[in-house]
Amino acid sequence: MDDSFRHRPYRAAIVLGALFVAAIASLIFSGLIGSISVPLAEVPTALSEIARGKPATLAATLLELRLGRAMTAFVTGAALSLAGLMMQALLRNPLADPYVLGISAGASVGALGALLFMCALWVVDAAAFAGAVTISAILYFLARRDLRGAATAQGGVSLLLLTGVILSSACMAIVTLMLSIAPDSRLRSMVFWMIGDLSGAPQRLLPWLVLGAVLIFALRNARALNIIALHADHAATLGVQVGPLRKGLFFCSGLLTASAVTSAGSIGFVGLIVPHALRFACGPDHRILIPAALLAGGSFLVLADTLARTITAPQQLPVGVVTALIGAPVFLYQLHRLRRP
Q1: Cα distance between residue 115 and residue 93, in whole Å
Q2: Containing H/E element for 125?
Q3: Which of 1, 238, 274, 315 is spaced 20 to 30 Å from 93 by Cα?
Q4: CATH of region 72-339, choose from 3.40.50.2300, 3.30.980.10, 1.10.3470.10, 1.25.40.10
Q5: Could you say which DSSP state residue 119 is in?
Q6: For 230-261, how does the pLDDT look when each residue is reduced to its tens digit (9 = 90+)?
């Protein structure tokens, strides 16, 4: 047996173990760092107070607030990264990201419309989710033949991609119109939502449930994703149900994107650079890439959000600015690596 094949499970265990440790470390680091630092020696006592539901000390109060925000950042980053990985598998395009089909643009129309009329926070979230679901439904109706796998591997997703781009452009035109007529008192909150901001993101159980359900689906279909990536033209003859798999990828990636955008706004580059970096580090096996994308994406956004709230403290930056400043040069480097012989 080939040594590389025999050692592959050990390599996967090492990579995933390292990413899990990095995820825990990012959460701890986020809890300790801020305009007022929490001493490491006070962390056990503070965690004990939080576990009892009675944070009495300043350290426990700060740690509870920061860890809540860090957990929201983690689930959002994990959702965006996993959605990007699934979208790239669906479109068979390494440049695809969670926003390429216009789902986030639909959420932006809903959320900014609610902000324009000064609605309550829960109405903004509901409107964002409704906008994302509406665009997903329109997209499915217009490109359902592609999702059934009726077309060839080379052109089977072209209609889906073009339809998404057109819907995204239409939604962004509506967004531009709302921004142009919005009064100054509401413009700042609308712009921050567009860029992506976690400062006011509430803690919810639903994003975790969505992430867990999609993770189960992705892991169950990891082998099929490997077959499609390597033998797209013959996937059906190799036992892969291409149509149901495409539909599943579309709905799951759309659901993850809607969940993430509803929680934190449009945060770019997470679903684009993290799957790319993991392919360089871990290879193309989706059995490793899927859990790795979850852990790495969550850790990346936690660290980016920590920078966003500390780099100009006490003023906080939108986390989308930080991910863009980090993601743009990293993605250019990845493109350079792809072009190398």
Answers
A1: 34
A2: helix 121-142
A3: 238
A4: 1.10.3470.10
A5: -
A6: 766 666 676 678 778 888 999 999 999 999 99
Which residue, chain included where needed, has tokens 């892969």? Answer: 240
Q: Which tokens hold the place of 52? A: 């009892």
- pLDDT tens digits for range 100-111: 888 889 999 999
What are the sequence ranges of the domains in the chain? Answer: 72-339
Residues of the chain predicted below pLDDT 50: 1-6, 150-155
Contact (CB, 8 A) for 224 and 240: yes
Cα 151 to chain centroid, rounded: 29
